[in-house]
Design a protein that fits this description.
Elements (H helix, E strand, L loop, with lengths): L7 H7 L3 H7 L12 H7 L4 H16 L9 H33 L10 H28 L3 H28 L11 H28 L6 H7 L1
Bound molecules: fe (ii) ion (2 copies).
Length: 227
């Protein structure tokens, strides 16, 4: 079955990241939830090839897991920026948009995750600051094998990773452990699926940096036991 035959609602609630693409191409999955993607593209005069390429990119991102032992530090950094930093930069604004919509439309429901959009905004702010700092300071040091300087600031990044993990737990609590009412709309379903995908991506990201990138530093084990 081609992705073009799948309805907008199915895409929105079953593929993490799909709502961001649908929203960007102005394919209204709320209003035309039962429309297959092919018909929606025609209806909204979207660029078919570009939409397909965006979905293919999402699929590839979820499947490929390279053998990092073959990667140089530069390749590893490039992989992290492309597959995690740039992905979070897209994921989080979309999750804020979905959470704001759900809070506005479902404020009367006891399961409504009141305050969730603000919780995601805080995470966005912290994550952007952390990633910018990595890209401007730590990563260039690692690429240039400037290990002494990298070792000096590594404890700060490890500490912030711990803070991020705590924020992810708070995020899950704010979303009532992703418990949905039986009559939840597609926005709400997409929000919780997207949040779970974000949490998985963020955990993978932190794990890869802590256990693979930082571990390239000489004396890493003695350094990390000190932090
Ligand atoms: Fe990072
Ligand atoms: Fe990091």
């Amino acid at each position: 079955m081609s992705i073009l035959d799948v309805t907008l609602e199915k895409l929105a609630v079953e593929i993490p990241g799909a709502t961001e693409i649908l929203y960007r191409f102005k394919l209204d999955y709320k209003q035309h939830h039962s429309l297959p993607l092919r018909d929606a593209i025609t209806e909204y005069r979207a660029d078919k090839q570009s939409v397909i390429e965006e979905f293919e990119r999402l699929e590839i991102r979820g499947k490929i897991r390279p053998d990092f032992s073959q990667y140089s530090e530069k390749d590893l950094v490039l992989y992290i920026v492309t597959h995690y930093h740039n992905v979070h930069r897209k994921q989080l604004p979309e999750l804020i948009r979905l959470a704001s919509t759900v809070e506005k439309e479902w404020g009367h429901d006891p399961l409504c995750p009141v305050g969730l959009s603000q919780c995601i905004r805080n995470i966005l702010e912290d994550t952007l600051a952390h990633m910018d700092k990595e890209e401007k300071t730590l990563f260039p040091m690692i690429i240039q094998s400037n290990w002494d300087m990298a070792a000096n600031c590594m404890a700060i990044f490890q500490f912030e990773h711990g803070e991020h993990v705590r924020s992810l737990k708070k995020l899950q609590r704010s979303a009532h452990n992703f418990q949905l009412p039986t009559n939840a709309c597609s926005h709400w379903k997409a929000l919780y699926m997207g949040l779970q995908a974000f949490i998985t991506t963020m955990r993978d990201h932190i794990h890869l940096e802590d256990t693979t990138l930082f571990a390239r530093m000489p004396d890493y084990l003695s350094l990390s036991s000190r932090s």
